[in-house]
Amino acid sequence: MKNNYVAKLLFLAGLVFTSMAYSQSNLLSSEHGRTIQNYLNQNKEKFNLSVSDIADLAINQEVFSKSTKVTHVYVSQQYQGIPVFNAISSVAVKNNAVFYYANNFVDNLNQRVSTTTPQITAEEAIIRASSELNLGALQNLELLEKTNNKYVFSKAAISKSNIPVQLVYFKNELGSLVLSWDLSIQALNGRNWYSVRIDAVTGNLIDETDWIVACNFDDPNHQNHGHAGAAYAPKEANFTLFKEAVSVSDGAQYNVFALPIESPNHGSRTLLVEPANTQASPYGWHDTNGVAGPEFTITRGNNVWAMEDRAGTDVIGYSPDGTETLNFDFPLNLNQQPEGYEDVSITNLFYINNVMHDIWYQYGFDEPSGNFQSNNYGNGGLGNDFVYADAQDGNGSDGSLNNAFFGTPPEGNNPGMTMFLWSPPGAGTLQNLVTVNNGSFAGSYGAVNPAAGNGSNLPGIGTTPVTADVQLVNDGSMSPTLGCNPVADLTGKIAIIRRGTCTFVEKIQNAQNAGAVAVIVVNHNNPDNDPNYTEYVNMSGETTPPLAIPSVFMNNTNGEALIAAMQNETVNVTLQGPSPYFIDGSLDNMIVAHEYGHGISNRLTGGAFQANCLTNATQMGEGWSDWFALMITLTAEEDYVAGRGMVTYSPGQPVDGIGIRNAKYATDFSVNGFTYGDTNSERSISQPHGIGFIWGTMLYDLTAAYVEKYGFDADIYNGTGGNNKVMQLVIDALKLQPCNPDFIEARDAILAADNATTGGADQCLIWEVFANRGLGLNASGGSKASRTDQVQDFSMPDDTDPTLQNCTSLSVDQYDQSNLIKVYPNPTYNDIYIKTNTSLGPVTITITDINGRQVFSKQADLYGTVTVPMQNLTSGMYILNISGKSVSTNHKIIKN
Question: Tens of pLDDT along 288-339?
């Protein structure tokens, strides 16, 4: 079946924006609304609201949650029938009462409003916006629809979809409510979907956001390269650990990097047969009409339409065809430019979009909540909003690299995913260039390829691998392995030379003169496994004859281990140069899942009919997206302490690299020591990616705590493990939090979600995790317009707090505002660990049983992690005491 370019254009031309596709209802028109109005009347002073502030409220959406058994009601504040922009409160109603209220209303409306009459028209507002955004000249701007103060205009040659305009009040920096025209324009460049507010009196553009999130992987904070770790062999997808969905009988099969595999560096492809989930995609991934049998044999269906867009024209591109058998099993050879394996790329993009749809459907991102489907099969919601996913996109005048976009308009309108290529790994980049082929040190190891250029005369490894036995140089001097003098015969060998004394070109010249075919330089100046690799690239010097043999540079830890292995065995090594080919982001499952995650958090926060509810200064969208990607690639072997880098394949890092964030996601503070207070740092923490990373760190810690308590379940669709529980918890919390939540409100929504589902069984655990990262009881979010006024706090609620009555004992004790001790796991089956990120000096650690008898005592320097053995103790409750000059604290410990 062929792609139909005309079909897409007709579809887009027929779009009528959602703001006209649904209508608000007066709060008192529904039973839930009346319950909410009564609640607000009784509690208005608590939220600093007056009678007039809550006199004109409207319901945007009501959604019932199966997991929490609450109805989420999204209530919009109005003044004389005109909505206050983003003044949307989330209210959870359960058993005919308000269970949770997340306030986002503006107080003192009467004093903040200056006029109710616009001086410029909706049409003039479009003209002003087009001019301010440099969108070009308007052509044939036509009014298509009008309802009260809501309008829909034609695309007018500046927008890919019709232009909705609505009269609103916008709260400016001074706190005044400015009468404004709220409109959105989907720019023809495909990179921007502008949501703007135009002052309805002056015509000035006073607020602007972009519904298309550009993940900006070229941001300076993302230029991190990983360490060369231990040997790594790619793994196969383990489907005993990660169970497939219940299958749909359409015969479809897809050869993909199947979850939980992250990328081609992490494992091989697997041929999946009928992987669609019957609950989330009951007619398979190629259906749109709800009748047995696929409507499409290409990578198109109810949830996503995946295609290539190398030209960057943002129109219908090529999609692979699985024929009537729906067989998407295509050959893959990564040793070519990505265009040569586009069938595999687009198929993998189609697969990840569909499994993201199917997995998160189980946890509540379903049709009524605003998920992405063409046909909602009668389950609520508007539908007509499957994802357009472009692979190998060339969007932009200069072409885009190292990036990915996701645009989320309101419910009923198609989101768009744009996946780009990544630059080939270059000189100075740490990659797995050294492969030890035999012996005790066999495996692949990181090294740097100092390609010619940047002032370097050192030839790097080319596309042809070099394989030979390795030999340590001997120049007969007091330091024979530095190779600064003529060295002994190296004919046919790969020479290993330690760094020091003379220049690199001298060392390599001497090895070349002795017959070496290549050189590995070991950087002994940096024993901490984190060398400054840029030093290696910028070395110059004349050689006679010119250097001809390639060289790579290896860090001290792995280099010395290789030298040690050579003492007792003959070691054969292959040096493989960096690939000259671009890397395809569509094969990086972490990136695809991250982008899709933006759609989930945007649709669930403030309700599906809003698209501006993650626009405050400390919004955490990037953190949720990272966490979504981490969760679908989680396995039982996850090392939460050592952590995992977020995206390592596309930037050309080893699998244990640091990824594209400020640090790995890890519970160990020596690996990731970021806390809530770091969000204030404009120098070291970017906005929004760095801010989101800190939120993602807290969610990763929360995942570790849940898995520690409840175990891991490989069945990601229907499991009952800690990973499943925390996935449900976070989705429930997204629905509970208000429009534009800060860290505090997002934390409180998670606590409320636990109360809704378990009655508060995990309140202690949740508080421990957040307090550990500075989001404790007395933390403050500051102004939502500022990213530099957050206040961190490590304190816990008192254990007599009634909200903690249903959970187990606390395992975090706040002994000082600036320091923190964490004791985990609690309860425990074996050992417990005491962790602190601040040195507390010598302490005495004792354990006492419930009868007051001391059963354990130990002296330790309390910094990092201290292990306390409990495996030989009987089951029961114990008191752990930690006493020292700067700390004295008790912890109740449960031994299972």
Answer: 999 989 999 999 999 999 999 998 888 899 999 999 999 999 999 998 999 9
Taking each helix axis from N to C end, the angle separating 763-772 and 689-710, rounded to the nearest 10 degrees, works out to 140
Rounded Cα distance between 620 and 604, Å, is 13
Comparing C-alpha atoms, which of 389, 360, 385, 358 is closest to residue 372? 385
Produce one character per residue of 202-217: b if its CB has 16 or more CB atoms within 10 Å, e if not: ebebebeebbbbbbbb
- Given a cut of 80, whether residue 579 has pLDDT beyond it is no
Per-residue model confidence (pLDDT) at position 800? 80
Segments in 139-273 forming alpha helices (H): none
Q: Which amino acid is at 653?
A: Q
Q: How far apart are CA 612 and CA 408, in angstroms?
A: 9
pLDDT in tens, 383-420: 999 999 999 998 744 457 888 999 999 999 999 999 99
Dmax over Cα atoms in the chain, in whole Å? 94
- Give dist(CA 675, CA 775) in Å, integer: 8
Q: Rounded to an integer, what distance in angstroms lies between the CA atom of residue 392 and that of residue 383?
A: 27
Task: Return the residue matching tokens 């029961």.
Answer: 876
Say yes or no to pLDDT of 22 above 70: no
Cβ-count burial 466-479 (b if 16+ within 10 Å, e if not): bebebbbbebeeee
Determine the Cα angle at 523 with ends 517 and 524, to 5°: 125
d(CA 891, CA 207): 50
Tokens of 387: 């994802």
Residues 6+ apart with CB under 8 A from 121: none
- Report d(CA 79, CA 77) in Å as an integer: 7
- Residue 291 neighbours by CB under 8 Å, 6+ apart: 283
Query: Which is nearest to 192 in space by CA: 216, 218, 211, 164?
Result: 211
Report the C-alpha gap between 577 and 301 in whole angstroms.
41
- Please state the separation of Cα 454 from the chain's center in Å: 34
Instruction: Pick the closest to residue 184 from 198, 205, 207, 165 (CA basis).
Output: 165
DSSP class of residue 254 equals: E
Burial of 704 (0-12, 13-18, 19+ CB in 10 A): buried
Q: What percent of the chain has pLDDT over 70?
A: 87
As beta bridge partners, residue 425 has none
Among 394-403, 440-449, 563-572, the least confident range: 394-403
Q: Over the chain, what is the mean pLDDT?
A: 86
Within 8 A by CB and 6+ apart from 867, the residues are 831, 832, 833
On whether the CB atoms of residues 829 and 857 are closer than 8 A, the answer is no
Distances (CA, A) of 478 to 200, 485, 500, 501, 508: 82, 11, 13, 12, 19
Residue-level length of the chain = 896
CB 423 within 8 A of CB 412: no
**Does 513 have pLDDT greater than 80?**
yes
pLDDT of 801: 83
Lowest mean pLDDT among 373-377, 616-620, 671-675, 860-864: 860-864
